Amino acid sequence: MGGKLSYLLVSPSCVRKGRFAPVLARLLSRATSDLVAIQSIPFSSPSAAAAARWLGGTPPNGVAPADWERWVARSLSPVPGTADRLGCTGILLAFHGPDAVDESVQMLGGFSGNTVDESIRGTFGDLEVGSDGGIRHCEPAAFGPGEGASVAADFQRFAEMAAASSALPVPAHGCERTLVLVKPDNFRHGGGRPGQVADLFCRTGLSLVGARLLRFSVRLAVDFYGPVRDALRTRLDGVAGEIAAHELAPGGLGIAFDAELTRELGRLLGPVYGEQRFQNLVKFMAGHTLDAVNANAWDEAGTETTLALVFEGPDAIARMRAVLGPTDPLKAPRGTVRREFGRSLLENGGHASDSVENAAREIALVRPWDFDLDGILGRPA
Question: Cα-flanking dihedrals φ and ψ of residue 92, to 5°?
Fold first, then answer.
């Protein structure tokens, strides 16, 4: 079906305040257009000033263009007095559909003051204008296509900004970096659930420095969960033996499945059972098992949607793992991602790196700084 491309950019100041996830939940619960991309866009002070000249759109009623441009640049810039590295990540959301442009303008909305407004700016934005017409305070919250703007040209600008930072910088002194996945089971539910899951992660107070919506290929799933494969093949002997003994006992074989025989079954079936669990994990993430896809197609994007988020801050690994909860949702504490959103050992809502070393490996695989401009612009109009 044909359609148009559009976007909303959640401002770095809004991301810095932990509001990206609620914005995402709001958009997903109301948009009829398809969400086709999420991409972090890094801003420096110079790039923020340059972007403010084309990104701000028409100033609110009664506000001078120069004053509006100055506040737009401020919302895109790093916090004054800090280095151009943290707190300067905007997050771009791309939509595709017949009414994508009109819908994004409507969802962005305007500043509503004290009135109730379900738009992004009406809920998360703020504008205070003095009696002289000058802006005293402004939080734009998000930006969308301006009137008469070329959406394709805007995406090209975003791609150039992303390319200017081809990788995340080294973590700040005393900080760790961790990768979080909002897994495919959340996107299957529809509505704002992915944003609700992301919101629990964002409440840790860590800095969100990278984001990317992606579809795991079979190869990416195999590489990402490679360390788990060996563990599954070597540590499930006991489980496999007990399952086999339970299934065979009522089968009329006339065999007493004592502890020794059960262990022997486990040694025989454990690696096979573990490999099957790994195949299920690959299928869950990519939509295909290893055997179902020709080796030449292992690098093609799968059918399942995942949101990758990179957070940074002191003790980021432990803090994010605490919010995630243990693998089994039934054993996870209340308020954790896996207790609130998980259903099983496989469909457990999310992932968070378990060590600094694994975080670096996983981030390198997911590449949250990659901007698939051709993939976005190549959608049929």
Answer: -95, 130
Q: At residue 221, what are phi and psi to the nearest 5 degrees?
A: -65, -45
How much is the pTM?
0.90
Region label for 376, one of left (φ > 0), alpha (ψ between -120 and 50) or beta (otherwise): alpha
pLDDT-derived band at 230 (thresholds 50, 70, 90) equals: confident
Tokens of 250: 């009522």
d(C-alpha 121, C-alpha 349), whole Å: 29
Q: CA dihedral in degrees (225, 226, 231, 233; nearest 10)?
A: 110
Asked if residues 145 and 55 have their Cβ atoms less than 8 Å apart, the reply is: no
Distance, CA of 322 to CA of 316 (rounded, Å)? 10
User: What does the alpha-carbon distance between residue 201 and residue 350 come to, in Å, rounded to a whole number?
Assistant: 10
Which structure tokens are listed for 242? 């007990």
The DSSP secondary structure of 125-183, one letter per residue, reads -EEEE-TTS-EEEEE--EE-PPTT--HHHHHHHHHHHHHTS-SPPPPPTT-EEEEEEE-
**Which amino acid makes up residue 111?**
F
Q: Answer whether residue 248 shows pLDDT above 70.
A: yes
pLDDT digits (tens, 9 = 90+) for 56-107: 888 888 889 999 999 999 999 987 655 555 558 999 999 999 999 999 999 9
Output 334-343 pairs: Cβ under 8 A, ≥24 positions apart: 335/200, 336/200, 337/197, 337/200, 337/201, 340/200, 341/185, 341/186, 341/193, 341/196, 341/197, 343/185
DSSP symbols for 110-135: ---TTS---SHHHHH-EEEE-TTS-E
Residue 59 DSSP one-character state: P
Domains in the chain, start-ordered, CATH in brackets?
4-215+305-377 (3.30.70.141), 221-297 (no CATH)
Report whether 27 contacts 174 (CB < 8 A): no
